[in-house]
């Protein structure tokens, strides 16, 4: 239960927070403004804001903005926040205030502000709204739990006076550089990725990219909000980055975990060492992070450059220290991060008190053992099986973990891959998600190992929260809500994305929403079979391993780093594109497609065609010279059309993803078009032709006249659109009209429009190039028309031999062999019979068409090869023969 | 560009602003039209443009007074457009004008009466003209022309504003006509269909209620569409309506209508007088008509070849080409008459051989199979009554009215 509540709580405190924020800082409350869909909420917030007299006008404006549209909003906020020197001060101030308050006078702060009242109100309002919508976190009740939980944590900060004052100061300084950077990154045109040079940098980029892909949320959103509302966040980020990246794989993984864990109950994190706290920020923010993809990374760089010296400042800033610290728990710094993650994971999988208790004991044992034999710092806690501390009967692991991770909005299993998401990202993303699973309250719990009482109280609070707001920890409440609100504000934007975001965003969101929905049941009913749990456990571990592995591969090797750059560039470009879509005022043309172009490395000549469902992998794309060989191979191939078509399609695909537009491209399309014509595959032919038109228009030489003729024929014979015919005729140049094929096509057109069947079949026999293949498709119609006309006009009979000759049943100059003639006679009379003509034999035994009788009886038979779905190529048997 | 002092510029701009606001507040549509019609190149607008160039930030003036700032958005875009227009930067001018038009339409929507309909017409016209010019500029810069398309969608929006109950609906047809012009120019004629449907089926529109000039234009364009569809009777009705109702003094318009009406009439078997062709300078049809009269297939083919480009572009090529059958009919009739003179008893039997010979005299080489094919088609299309005896290679004509006249009915009906 408590898991669930906690998860839930992240959402709805925002109004409160905003409000709180504003009162405290007297600054831009703006940021927190939720982009809620519900006007209800928005209005509520407004009212809240209105009540707070201390507020600055800035906040109001922003709020409005949010409600209105996504477009203008971000920038406004942005400029306000970032550029004004005051902002820096601002951030620092609130923080200081905050720490002081938290430490000393929680209650006082609360009292001064109108918060409580609002809170109540909001509380009442929410339930109704959220009860209907399926948002898991939404229910008003849940919000309350959050507060209570928070409150709990808060007292802690008060108790532990680590370094509040000092902390307050450094934070602002940090905040500022960061903001500036983000500001820079904001302009969509900028491509941070492109700038990267060193492999190390590449890695950073890579990271960014990941985030981007992951949280495709355009930077505009509420990115701001986190910053403003919560100075804390900034620091954590930096700290996190610093900690994470410089370190090795293991540490990284742990880092990731931490973040995730952080995300939920903020309280849990405090227990962790400072660095971790900072790390934790990230996970909390997956959504946040999404908002600030570019700025985020940059900040990272900056922070890493800044060096480790600044860390302490951050630490203190980032989080109020929980009470727990006072307890004999090892200093945060002394515990390896991975261990903390491990513990968190373990706790996250406990569902009941009993389980937790047993888990605690087990953990304790494991840790003591580890520290006894000195492996505490050396052991790879990330891969340590949880089963050592979890009994098999303690199930539910995976369900809870998925719940959490899903909340993070990327559970490894669930997240559908965006088509354009660079492949390389995967590991990183996954690792994040995997680690996220266990975290939750782990840290917190661990701390409580020695402090069972507090733990219990915590749980109690949880229990209460469901139904009714608990204010047992009143003092801390404001603080907590504040944090919470920050979190929420991060999340909000993402939600909003669902409506407006690009593909990737949508996908991500979907995943999150799905999992959100799932979360309730899974959290409630933890009774999954032990077996299942085990399986899931192992699976998640497998993921971890894989991720660690791939990351290892990625980072150090320069060539991969290059790929990373490429990917990140693409990611950026895509992101930018999405942003444009978002804002709606810029066009797709502004996307730098060059950045998206792949350079192939595949040397295989033969390659099957698969429709791309993700960004093309350079290693599977053939470069131009290989493609040339592939084309030759297809041309010389003796295999059937289906094979060739498949091969040509894959060649075309490779050309397209590499954006090759030259003679080779033309050749490939021409080859394919011809083959398609030969096989009567009109859809494929049309695809090729439309591409060829573009290529010819670009001035690339080819057999343009040949294809002009085809296109004329096609329009004449198949589309039957006069306007199109006229325009394509008027487009023909004088030289084109002299071309044999074009002239032939024009004559065919004349014959068809005038219904001159004699001319048509003569032209049919003398067709140059592959014109006859196109005419083939019209022969049936023409014959039928001719016979109709003749049987109506001629009396009394027409010899079949004449028809066979006029209607093209005889081969060219077939006078030679009489045998052939009889063959064609046969074919002709067969055809006539099939169309309802009545044939009679005269005294010489020659077949004659009885025109008068036939006139009324002629009909167009259903094509024999007709199939219900209209494409005989889709016939099942044919399909099998093709694939075999 | 003449030098304009700052004070003068200020004066001109303020005067324009005053006029604009005055026109709006007094609902003076003609004045508003004058103030908006760029393409008139009126001296007052040109001098205003110069003034705007001197006085860089006209928005200050707009903001000065509440009176102006009420239309601040409209005026600011309009000024920017005018400025760019004066500099010959047509793409910029178009973009600003599009924004202006949007703002104006928004404002227009709020005006209850339709007093500003004329002004809206001007806006619709100007945006189309500007878009065409901008596209020309884009093409010459090697960019893809897309502004006319954008103008089309804006006009469609305007149509949506007008198509409803109330006094503004009579403006819908004007916008429709502008849309037609746009779509015909773009070659996206099929987009006309939706507009036509709403004009012809929506109950709110009473066709007779629309202004005459719009009705004529509408009929002209829909008639042209029918020509594309080879629906000649309908094309005939529409184009004839346009011809009857158009201003008889506008020879250019009459000529435009005749360009389509003549081929339509020809294919219905109605041949115009030479005077008509001469009067309206339609010489390209001279030989066609002549060929039809004489049954001279060669002349027809020559005429078609000679004006091929023109006919293809205007879209009547295929219509004229189909006249061939009528020419054959005429030729056969001639042969029949000649035969009748020499041997009335057997005149109704036309040997294919004879027809082939006649064609050879016209320098058209056809073998008997092909001649037979043509004959069967003529009989099938009811241009010739009778039958073809295949064995003896003879066309046997009906004794009664062997060559029926079309009399306003299309071939083959």
Q: Could you please describe the fold and organization of this structure?
A:
The complex is a heterodimer of chains A (884) and B (413). Chain A is mostly helical. Chain A is 68% helix and 1% strand. Among the domains of chain A are: 600-610 and 617-699, no CATH class; 703-793, no CATH class; 797-867, no CATH class. In chain A, strand 3 (839-841) and strand 4 form a beta hairpin. Chain A is elongated, with a radius of gyration of 36 Å. Chain A starts with a helix and ends with a helix. Mean pLDDT of chain A is 56; it is low at 1-40, 45-333, 392-528 and 545-586. Chain B has helices at 6-25, 29-36, 43-54, 58-64, 66-69, 72-87, 90-110, 117-140, 147-162, 172-186, 192-201, 212-228, 232-245, 251-267, 274-279, 286-294, 297-306, 308-314, 317-321, 324-342, 352-361, 368-380; strands at residues 349-351, 386-389, 394-397. A three-stranded antiparallel sheet of chain B has the order 1-3-2. The longest helix of chain B is centred in the first third of the chain and has 24 residues, at 117-140. Chain B is elongated, with a radius of gyration of 29 Å. Classes of the chains: A mainly alpha (884), B mainly alpha (413). Chain A binds chain B through residues 722-723, 725-727, 729-730, 750, 753-759, 786, 788-790, 792-799, 802, 806, and chain B through 187, 189, 228-230, 309, 312-313, 315, 317-318, 321-322, 324-325, 369-370, 372-377, 379-380, 387-391, 396.
């Amino acid at each position: 239960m408590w898991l669930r509540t906690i998860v839930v709580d992240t959402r709805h405190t925002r109004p409160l927070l905003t409000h709180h924020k504003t009162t405290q800082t007297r600054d831009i409350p703006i940021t927190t403004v939720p982009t809620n869909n519900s006007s209800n909420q928005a209005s509520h917030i407004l009212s809240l804001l209105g009540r707070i007299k201390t507020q600055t006008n800035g906040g109001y404006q922003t709020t409005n903005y949010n409600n209105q549209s996504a477009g203008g909003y971000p920038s406004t906020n942005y400029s306000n926040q970032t550029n004004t020197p005051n902002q820096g001060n601002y951030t620092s101030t609130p923080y200081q205030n905050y720490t002081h308050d938290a430490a000393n006078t929680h209650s006082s702060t609360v009292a001064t502000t109108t918060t409580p009242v609002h809170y109540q109100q909001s509380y009442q309002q929410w339930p109704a709204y959220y009860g209907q919508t399926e948002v898991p976190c939404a229910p008003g009740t849940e919000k309350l739990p959050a507060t209570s939980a928070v409150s709990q944590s808060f007292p802690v900060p008060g108790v532990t006076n680590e370094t509040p004052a000092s902390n307050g100061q450094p934070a602002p300084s940090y905040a500022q550089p960061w903001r500036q950077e983000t500001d820079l990154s904001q302009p969509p045109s900028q491509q941070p990725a492109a700038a990267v040079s060193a492999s190390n940098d590449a890695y950073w980029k890579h990271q960014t990219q990941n985030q981007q892909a992951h949280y495709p949320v355009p930077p505009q959103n509420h990115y701001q909000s986190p910053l403003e509302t919560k100075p804390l966040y900034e620091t954590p980020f930096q700290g996190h980055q610093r900690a994470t990246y410089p370190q090795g794989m293991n540490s990284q993984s742990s880092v990731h975990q931490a973040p995730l864990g952080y995300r939920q109950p903020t309280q849990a994190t405090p227990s962790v060492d400072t660095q971790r706290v900072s790390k934790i920020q990230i996970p909390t923010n997956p959504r946040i992070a999404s908002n600030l993809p570019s700025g985020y990374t940059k900040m990272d760089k900056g922070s890493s450059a800044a060096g480790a010296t600044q860390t302490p400042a951050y630490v203190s800033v980032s989080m109020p220290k929980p009470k727990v610290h006072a307890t004999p728990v090892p200093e945060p710094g002394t515990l390896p991060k991975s261990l903390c993650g491990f513990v968190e994971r373990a706790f996250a999988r406990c569902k009941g008190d009993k389980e937790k208790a047993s888990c605690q004991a087990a953990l304790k044992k494991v840790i003591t053992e580890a520290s006894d034999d000195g492996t505490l710092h050396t052991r790879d806690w990330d891969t340590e099986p949880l089963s050592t501390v979890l009994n098999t009967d303690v199930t539910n692991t995976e369900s809870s973990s998925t719940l959490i991770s899903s909340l993070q909005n990327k559970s490894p299993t669930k997240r559908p891959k965006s088509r354009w998401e660079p492949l390389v990202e995967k590991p990183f993303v996954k690792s994040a998600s995997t680690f996220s699973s266990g975290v939750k309250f782990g840290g917190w719990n661990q701390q409580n190992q020695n402090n069972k009482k507090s733990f219990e109280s915590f749980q109690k609070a949880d229990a209460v929260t469901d139904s009714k707001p608990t204010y047992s920890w009143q003092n801390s409440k404001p603080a907590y809500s504040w944090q919470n609100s920050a979190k929420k504000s991060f999340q909000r934007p993402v939600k909003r994305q669902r409506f407006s975001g690009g593909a990737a965003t949508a996908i991500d969101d979907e995943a999150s929403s799905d999992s959100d929905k799932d979360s309730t049941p899974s959290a409630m009913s933890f009774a999954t079979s032990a077996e299942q749990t085990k399986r899931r456990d192992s699976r998640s571990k497998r993921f971890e391993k894989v991720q660690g592995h791939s990351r290892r591969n990625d980072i150090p090797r320069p060539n991969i780093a290059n790929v990373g750059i490429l990917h990140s560039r693409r990611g950026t470009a895509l992101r930018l594109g999405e942003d444009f879509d978002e804002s709606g005022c810029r066009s797709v043309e502004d996307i730098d497609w060059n950045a998206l172009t792949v350079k192939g490395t595949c040397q295989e000549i033969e390659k099957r065609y698969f429709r791309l469902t993700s960004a093309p992998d350079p290693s599977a794309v053939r470069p131009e010279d290989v493609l040339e060989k592939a084309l030759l191979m297809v041309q010389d191939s003796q295999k059937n059309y289906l094979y060739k078509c498949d091969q040509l399609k894959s060649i075309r695909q490779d050309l397209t993803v590499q954006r090759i537009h030259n003679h080779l491209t033309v050749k490939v399309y021409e080859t394919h078009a011809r083959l398609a014509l030969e096989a009567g595959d009109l859809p494929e032919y049309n695809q090729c032709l439309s591409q060829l038109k573009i290529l010819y228009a670009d001035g690339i030489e080819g057999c343009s006249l040949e294809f002009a003729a085809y296109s004329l024929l096609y329009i004449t014979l198949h589309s039957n659109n006069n306007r199109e015919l006229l325009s394509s005729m008027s487009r023909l140049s004088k030289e084109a009209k002299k071309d044999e094929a074009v002239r032939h096509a024009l004559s065919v057109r004349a014959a068809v429009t005038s219904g001159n069947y004699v001319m048509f079949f003569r032209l049919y026999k003398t067709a140059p190039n592959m014109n006859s293949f196109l005419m083939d498709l019209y022969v049936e119609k023409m014959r039928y028309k001719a016979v109709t006309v003749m049987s109506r006009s001629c009396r009394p009979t027409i010899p079949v031999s004449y028809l066979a000759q006029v209607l093209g049943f005889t081969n060219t100059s077939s006078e030679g062999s009489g045998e052939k003639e009889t063959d064609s006679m046969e074919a002709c009379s067969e055809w006539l019979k099939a169309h309802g003509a009545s044939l009679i034999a005269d005294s010489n035994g020659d077949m004659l068409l009885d025109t008068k009788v036939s006139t009324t009886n002629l009909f167009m038979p259903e094509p024999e090869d007709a199939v219900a779905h209209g494409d005989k190529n889709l016939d099942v048997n044919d399909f099998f023969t093709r694939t075999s | 560009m003449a030098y304009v002092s700052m004070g003068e510029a200020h004066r001109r701009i303020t005067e324009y602003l005053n006029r604009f606001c005055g026109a709006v507040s007094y609902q003076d549509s003609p004045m508003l039209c004058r103030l908006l019609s760029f393409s008139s190149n009126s001296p007052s607008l040109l001098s205003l443009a110069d003034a705007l160039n001197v006085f860089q930030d006209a928005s200050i003036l707009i903001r000065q007074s509440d009176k102006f700032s009420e239309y601040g958005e409209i005026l600011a875009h309009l000024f920017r457009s005018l400025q760019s227009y004066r500099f010959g930067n047509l793409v910029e001018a178009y973009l600003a004008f599009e924004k202006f038009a949007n703002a104006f339409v928004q404002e227009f929507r709020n005006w209850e009466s339709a007093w500003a309909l004329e002004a809206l017409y001007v806006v619709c016209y100007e945006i189309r003209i500007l878009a065409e010019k901008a596209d020309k500029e884009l093409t010459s810069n090697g960019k893809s022309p897309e502004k006319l398309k954008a103008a089309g969608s804006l006009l469609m929006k305007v149509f949506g504003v007008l198509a409803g109950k109330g006094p503004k609906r009579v403006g819908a047809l004007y916008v429709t006509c502008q849309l037609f012009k746009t779509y015909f120019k773009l070659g996206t004629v099929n987009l006309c269909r939706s507009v036509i449907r709403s004009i012809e089926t929506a109950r709110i529109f009473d066709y007779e209620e629309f202004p005459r000039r719009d009705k004529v234009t509408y009929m002209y364009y829909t008639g042209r569409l029918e020509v594309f569809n080879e629906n000649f009777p309908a094309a005939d009705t529409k184009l004839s309506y346009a011809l009857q109702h158009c201003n008889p003094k506008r020879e250019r318009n009459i000529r435009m209508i005749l360009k389509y009406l003549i081929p339509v009439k020809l294919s219905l078997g109605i041949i115009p007088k030479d005077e008509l062709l001469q009067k309206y300078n339609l010489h390209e049809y001279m030989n066609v008509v002549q060929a039809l009269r004489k049954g001279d297939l060669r002349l027809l083919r020559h005429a078609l070849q000679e004006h091929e480009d023109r006919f293809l572009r205007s879209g009547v090529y295929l219509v004229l080409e189909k006249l061939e059958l009528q020419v054959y009919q005429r030729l056969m009739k001639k042969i029949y008459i000649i035969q009748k003179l020499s041997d009335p008893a057997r005149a109704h039997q036309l040997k294919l051989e004879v027809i082939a010979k006649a064609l050879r005299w016209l320098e058209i080489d056809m073998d008997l199979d092909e001649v037979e094919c043509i004959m069967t088609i003529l009989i099938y299309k009811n241009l010739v009554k009778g039958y073809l005896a295949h064995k003896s290679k003879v066309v046997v004509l009906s004794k009664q009215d062997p060559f029926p006249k079309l009399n306003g009915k299309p071939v083959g009906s």
